[in-house]
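Protocol step 4 of 5: obtain the predicted structure for the target chain.
Materials: sequence only (see below). No template structures provided, no constraints applied. The aim of this step is simply to have a reference model before the mutagenesis design in step 5. Sequence pasted as it appears in the construct record:
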Amino acid sequence: MSEKIATMALLAKDIAEFVPHRAPMILIDRVIKHQQDSLITQVEITEQSAYFNDAINGVPNYVGIEYMAQSIAALAGVEAHLRNDKIRVGFLLGTRKLLMHQPLYQLGHKYQISVARLYQEDSGLAVFDCQILADETVIASANVNVFQPQDTQAYIQESSV
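Step 4 output (structure tokens):
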């Protein structure tokens, strides 16, 4: 974990600089704010948004868990940049206390995703408090459990045996 706070110049970089995903699977648009152990990202819903559904004129609410997971990945990516380290893959293990207060993310709306590290082990296991906000109203929240191994390839090979 880093004690440095990212500069606005660093946060202005393309979101692809911080997450191990590639288009079209990068679902969040940008990093807004970084503090120690927390990050705020943003997504704007357009007709080009991944999982956009014409029938509901938006993105289904269950995609919110991936917005949260990618925001956690972006926090790890910002911290990696601050340490001059490489971006590593992480794994979403599950959620607790998941609440979704609306059925979809609406076309033309912007949402902020707030993630705050509650706990992290040296092994890479961590728990985050996550919220999705429309304006300043919480519309989804969860505790998200993730795992980021030091060596992803070794972890995958070990897990497949």
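Step 4 remarks: The chain has three helices and eight strands. The CA atoms of residues 52 and 59 lie 5 Å apart.
Proceed to step 5.
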